[in-house]
Amino acid sequence: MSQASHRTATAAAPAGMKPGAGRVSALRGLLPFLRPYRARLALAFALLCLGSGTILVVPLAFRDLIDSGFGTGVAQGRALLGTAGLDGQFLVLFGLATFWAAAVAARYYAVSWVGERVTADLRCAVYARVLGQSPQFFETLQTGEVLSRLTGDTTLIQTVVGSSVSMGLRSLFQFGGGMVMLAVTSAHLFGLIFGLMAVLALPIAAIGRRVRTLSRESQDRIADASALAGEILNAMPTVQAFTQEQYEAQRFAARTETGFRTAVRRTRVRALLAALIIGAVMGTIIFVLWIGARQVQAGTLSLGELGAFVLYAALVAGGAGTLAEVWGDVMRAGGATERLLELLQAESAIRETSAPQPPRRAAQVGIVFDHVGLAYPARPGVRVLDDLCLEIVPGERVALVGPSGAGKTSLFQLLLRYYEVSAGAIRIDGQDIRQLALRELRRGIALVPQEPVIFSASALENIRYGRPAASDEDVLAAARAAAVDEFITRLPEGYATFLGERGTRLSGGQRQRIAIARAILKRARLLLLDEATSALDAESERLVQQGLAAAMEGRTTLIIAHRLATVQQVDRIVVIDHGRIVETGTAADLRRQGGLYARLAALQLAS
Ligand SMILES: Nc1ncnc2c1ncn2[C@@H]1O[C@H](COP(=O)(O)OP(=O)(O)OP(=O)(O)O)[C@@H](O)[C@H]1O
């Protein structure tokens, strides 16, 4: 049975994934990734303090500039620019601006670097973790979902770590420092501004929350449309064969339209929010300016102080605006981190033993299935294998035959420990496979699966996947044995020919031969062939059988086959039905017995 056919379309947390904690607090999970770069972060923070400090000094310089009558007199008492003339004062301002620009650039570089680095580290960590999961994990989690987490979610985190957080901190400094300076400059006006802001903050916060909900909705709708497109693009030949292009285009259009409507709703509320914020900020500033101007008229406030006050007010307003925006990003990144941490903390359903035994490397493998039972985790109530006992002696070639769905492939799945037995045990060379390290177990097995996988690489690289350290001669020998030679030499660039994504540029039978060559090259002691030659014509099959016979020589081999003609040469045939062994023996024995095998054989001969 193919794994793909068991994948369900649910996005629910797959087996082994822990549910995440609260959203923003999930960001704490990023700490281990940030820790190695704390020196750079400290530097960025120092640069942030410097930059923010500089920008807070600028309005003071303006105050002095105005109060000194633009260099014609000297401001009384607390002059920042001292007794410098007009040119000198502007020189100081230029100096401040240059210093600020340099501090901002250096901080931007340092923070973005950390953002990119952390994202790359996170991607690799999540990917490595996902690669270690058992097939059960992929039954529930769609590949597209993992990909979107690896790209979309990490990019969101990159935005936050690489820019939003520094923007937020800068704005926080600007906001806090600006507030203090406002109070210092004019306590009266500060009181006014503070009161007005407090009144206006509530409705703005409420609308902001609504924008956030709508943003999330709009992201979800976009993801829906992409998920649909992803699935359909992978199934184009079927879509076209059933002439469903128009239907699929309409389905996509309908989802995109929903996304558009959600986006428009969000934009409408956002526009209202923008109007409200600008109105509130400008209204407050103008109102305060009006009161301040009256104070200047009355002589209780200097013109420079009023100027500085307005600049600080603008800084505070800008800081508050950025903070609100950054908070939205931080919330989204919280969600993204949560989803990534779920993947990062996922435990494989197959547990490695803490103290693996070293494998006994006998020249040939003996296998014992000892009262093996299996119920797949997705269907715990259904016994796919039931109390199955089978002993395979070293070097034996055994064929597993039986109706579709009888449980033949499931035996292979258990041998490779993709799934755990529900009852009994499997022993290889007398060792329970649960006592072996997974790597060691699988290193000793070469598999030709029912649906061979071809990677988007050359033919040579595809075969070499069986044993990456193999020499070119070994790869070519394996290719010849599997009759790959026969068709590869006819391809334009021979073994260097690129085979296309998922081997789309090969026929089914050619793909099978590549998979067989790969397994032969692995030179494992146990060979598992799952319908390895089902897609071959009689002539190619004869060629491949010769190669396989060479590969089986001296190796324990298990062969699943539907076409009984292909298993006449094996040592023993085991007939499986409904998860149980119903007959065993040589082909001739079984035909004589007149049981299930004889019936299957008669049907095949008749057809
Ligand atoms: N991952 C899974 N989760 C739940 N049930 C599964 C899973 N894989 C296989 N099954 C079920 O287990 C039963 C045996 O499947 P298996 O693939 O072993 O059959 P098979 O004998 O190899 O069939 P075929 O000859 O058609 O490949 C089937 O009924 C199938 O639906």
According to CATH, what is the class of the largest domain? Answer: Mainly Alpha
- Poorly predicted parts: 1-22
In round numbers, the mean pLDDT is 82
Total beta strand runs = 10
CA distance, first residue to last residue: 24 Å
Q: What shape does the CA trace take?
A: elongated
Which sequence of SSEs, written as H and E, runs from N to C?
HHHHHHHHHEEEHEEHEHHHHEHEEEHH
Bound molecules: adenosine-5'-triphosphate
- Do you know the CATH architecture of the largest domain? Up-down Bundle
Quick one: biggest sheet? 6 strands, mixed
Fraction of residues in β-strands: 5-15%
CATH topology of the largest domain: ABC transporter transmembrane region fold
For this structure, what is the CATH homologous superfamily of the largest domain? ABC transporter type 1, transmembrane domain
Rg value? 36 Å
Structural class given helices, strands, pairing?
A: alpha/beta
Strand arrangement in the largest pleated sheet: 6-7-8-3-9-10
Helix content: 55-70%
- Please, how many helices? 18
Tally of individual domains: 3
Please provide a written account of the structure.
The protein contains 18 helices and ten strands. The strands form two sheets. A six-stranded mixed β-sheet has the order 6-7-8-3-9-10, sandwiched between helices. It is of the alpha/beta class and 607 residues long. It is elongated and about 120 Å long. The two termini are 24 Å apart. The chain folds into three domains: 1-185 and 332-351, ABC transporter type 1, transmembrane domain (ABC transporter transmembrane region fold), CATH 1.20.1560.10; 187-300; 364-444 and 528-535 and 561-607, 3-Layer(aba) Sandwich (Rossmann fold). The protein has helices at residues 31-34, 38-67, 86-131, 135-140, 143-185, 187-233, 236-241, 245-298, 303-344, 408-415, 438-443, 459-464, 472-481, 485-488, 508-522, 538-552, 587-593, 596-606; strands at residues 367-374, 385-392, 397-401, 423-428, 431-432, 445-448, 526-530, 556-560, 572-577, 580-585. The site of adenosine-5'-triphosphate has 14 residues, from helix 10.
